[in-house]
Write a structure and sequence with these properties.
164 residues; mainly alpha; 3 domains; 7 helices
Length: 164
Amino acid sequence: MEEKGTGLITAFDSLFTTNKIQMLKVLFTRLPSAQQGGFAIYIKFLELQYTLRFLRVQPVPRFAGSKPLSADFFSGDSSDTIALLDELLPFSGPAERTRIENIKNMLQNIAKMKEMMEMMEMLKEMFPEGCGGDGENPMDFFSGMAGMSGMDMSSVFDMFGKEN
Protein backbone atom coordinates (compact mmCIF):
# COMPACT_ATOMS: atom_id res chain seq x y z
CA MET A 1 0.00 0.00 0.00
CA GLU A 2 2.74 2.47 0.97
CA GLU A 3 4.84 1.62 -2.09
CA LYS A 4 1.96 2.40 -4.46
CA GLY A 5 1.47 5.89 -2.99
CA THR A 6 5.20 6.59 -3.08
CA GLY A 7 5.35 5.36 -6.66
CA LEU A 8 2.58 7.75 -7.71
CA ILE A 9 4.39 10.66 -6.06
CA THR A 10 7.66 9.71 -7.75
CA ALA A 11 5.91 9.46 -11.14
CA PHE A 12 4.34 12.89 -10.61
CA ASP A 13 7.62 14.44 -9.51
CA SER A 14 9.57 12.97 -12.43
CA LEU A 15 6.97 14.27 -14.89
CA PHE A 16 7.41 17.88 -13.73
CA THR A 17 11.18 18.11 -13.40
CA THR A 18 14.35 17.84 -15.42
CA ASN A 19 17.72 16.16 -14.87
CA LYS A 20 19.24 19.60 -14.29
CA ILE A 21 16.78 20.27 -11.45
CA GLN A 22 17.46 16.84 -9.96
CA MET A 23 21.20 17.57 -10.02
CA LEU A 24 20.57 20.89 -8.24
CA LYS A 25 18.68 18.99 -5.53
CA VAL A 26 21.71 16.76 -4.99
CA LEU A 27 23.95 19.85 -4.85
CA PHE A 28 21.55 21.42 -2.33
CA THR A 29 22.47 18.81 0.28
CA ARG A 30 26.18 19.82 0.02
CA LEU A 31 25.63 23.56 0.56
CA PRO A 32 26.18 25.30 3.89
CA SER A 33 22.88 25.67 5.76
CA ALA A 34 22.99 29.48 5.42
CA GLN A 35 22.75 29.13 1.62
CA GLN A 36 20.19 26.31 1.49
CA GLY A 37 17.12 28.52 1.97
CA GLY A 38 17.67 30.69 -1.07
CA PHE A 39 18.80 27.71 -3.13
CA ALA A 40 15.64 25.78 -2.23
CA ILE A 41 13.52 28.71 -3.45
CA TYR A 42 15.54 28.79 -6.68
CA ILE A 43 14.96 25.05 -7.23
CA LYS A 44 11.21 25.38 -6.63
CA PHE A 45 11.11 28.37 -8.99
CA LEU A 46 12.80 26.29 -11.71
CA GLU A 47 10.27 23.47 -11.14
CA LEU A 48 7.36 25.90 -11.44
CA GLN A 49 8.84 27.44 -14.57
CA TYR A 50 9.37 24.01 -16.15
CA THR A 51 5.87 22.86 -15.17
CA LEU A 52 4.23 25.90 -16.75
CA ARG A 53 6.22 25.41 -19.97
CA PHE A 54 5.46 21.67 -19.99
CA LEU A 55 1.70 22.21 -19.56
CA ARG A 56 1.59 24.80 -22.35
CA VAL A 57 3.09 22.31 -24.78
CA GLN A 58 1.18 19.15 -23.85
CA PRO A 59 -1.69 18.10 -21.59
CA VAL A 60 -0.98 16.10 -18.47
CA PRO A 61 -1.18 12.36 -19.19
CA ARG A 62 -3.35 10.22 -16.95
CA PHE A 63 -1.28 8.11 -14.60
CA ALA A 64 -1.52 4.36 -15.16
CA GLY A 65 -4.33 2.81 -13.15
CA SER A 66 -5.75 6.11 -11.95
CA LYS A 67 -9.46 6.86 -12.14
CA PRO A 68 -11.15 10.18 -11.53
CA LEU A 69 -13.20 10.42 -8.35
CA SER A 70 -16.93 10.26 -8.73
CA ALA A 71 -18.72 13.42 -7.67
CA ASP A 72 -21.24 11.26 -5.84
CA PHE A 73 -19.12 8.58 -4.19
CA PHE A 74 -21.79 7.75 -1.59
CA SER A 75 -23.92 6.10 -4.25
CA GLY A 76 -22.84 2.91 -5.88
CA ASP A 77 -19.58 1.13 -5.18
CA SER A 78 -17.24 3.02 -2.83
CA SER A 79 -14.30 0.62 -3.20
CA ASP A 80 -12.39 3.16 -5.33
CA THR A 81 -12.82 5.77 -2.61
CA ILE A 82 -11.68 3.32 0.06
CA ALA A 83 -8.63 2.44 -2.08
CA LEU A 84 -7.83 6.17 -2.38
CA LEU A 85 -8.10 6.58 1.39
CA ASP A 86 -5.74 3.61 1.84
CA GLU A 87 -3.22 5.34 -0.46
CA LEU A 88 -3.44 8.55 1.61
CA LEU A 89 -2.87 6.81 4.96
CA PRO A 90 0.96 6.53 4.78
CA PHE A 91 1.23 10.31 4.33
CA SER A 92 -1.14 11.18 7.19
CA GLY A 93 -0.40 12.38 10.68
CA PRO A 94 -2.17 10.82 13.67
CA ALA A 95 -5.22 13.14 13.52
CA GLU A 96 -5.59 12.74 9.75
CA ARG A 97 -5.17 8.98 10.08
CA THR A 98 -8.05 8.87 12.57
CA ARG A 99 -10.28 10.93 10.25
CA ILE A 100 -9.45 8.75 7.25
CA GLU A 101 -10.15 5.56 9.21
CA ASN A 102 -13.48 7.05 10.36
CA ILE A 103 -14.44 7.92 6.78
CA LYS A 104 -13.52 4.42 5.62
CA ASN A 105 -15.62 2.88 8.40
CA MET A 106 -18.54 5.15 7.54
CA LEU A 107 -18.39 4.18 3.85
CA GLN A 108 -18.21 0.49 4.73
CA ASN A 109 -21.17 0.87 7.13
CA ILE A 110 -23.20 2.70 4.48
CA ALA A 111 -22.53 -0.17 2.06
CA LYS A 112 -23.70 -2.68 4.68
CA MET A 113 -26.83 -0.63 5.38
CA LYS A 114 -27.60 -0.50 1.63
CA GLU A 115 -27.31 -4.28 1.49
CA MET A 116 -29.64 -4.59 4.48
CA MET A 117 -32.17 -2.21 2.91
CA GLU A 118 -32.07 -4.17 -0.36
CA MET A 119 -32.68 -7.37 1.58
CA MET A 120 -35.60 -5.76 3.39
CA GLU A 121 -37.11 -4.61 0.11
CA MET A 122 -36.72 -8.13 -1.25
CA LEU A 123 -38.47 -9.52 1.84
CA LYS A 124 -41.30 -7.00 1.43
CA GLU A 125 -41.76 -8.25 -2.14
CA MET A 126 -41.63 -11.89 -1.06
CA PHE A 127 -43.95 -11.40 1.91
CA PRO A 128 -46.26 -8.49 1.09
CA GLU A 129 -48.53 -9.48 4.00
CA GLY A 130 -45.64 -9.24 6.48
CA CYS A 131 -43.19 -11.69 7.99
CA GLY A 132 -45.50 -12.86 10.74
CA GLY A 133 -48.50 -13.33 8.49
CA ASP A 134 -50.60 -10.90 10.54
CA GLY A 135 -49.68 -7.71 8.68
CA GLU A 136 -46.37 -7.10 10.42
CA ASN A 137 -43.87 -4.81 8.83
CA PRO A 138 -40.62 -6.64 7.95
CA MET A 139 -38.73 -3.76 9.59
CA ASP A 140 -40.48 -4.60 12.87
CA PHE A 141 -39.47 -8.23 12.43
CA PHE A 142 -35.79 -7.32 12.00
CA SER A 143 -35.92 -4.74 14.78
CA GLY A 144 -37.14 -7.50 17.08
CA MET A 145 -34.33 -9.77 15.95
CA ALA A 146 -31.79 -7.00 16.50
CA GLY A 147 -33.18 -6.42 19.98
CA MET A 148 -32.48 -10.03 20.86
CA SER A 149 -28.85 -9.55 19.81
CA GLY A 150 -28.46 -6.40 21.91
CA MET A 151 -28.42 -3.96 18.99
CA ASP A 152 -30.63 -0.87 18.98
CA MET A 153 -31.91 -0.81 15.39
CA SER A 154 -33.97 2.35 15.90
CA SER A 155 -30.78 4.37 16.45
CA VAL A 156 -29.20 2.77 13.38
CA PHE A 157 -32.21 3.65 11.21
CA ASP A 158 -32.42 7.16 12.72
CA MET A 159 -28.77 7.74 11.83
CA PHE A 160 -29.61 7.20 8.17
CA GLY A 161 -32.89 9.11 8.27
CA LYS A 162 -35.16 6.06 8.09
CA GLU A 163 -38.25 5.76 10.23
CA ASN A 164 -38.47 2.44 12.06
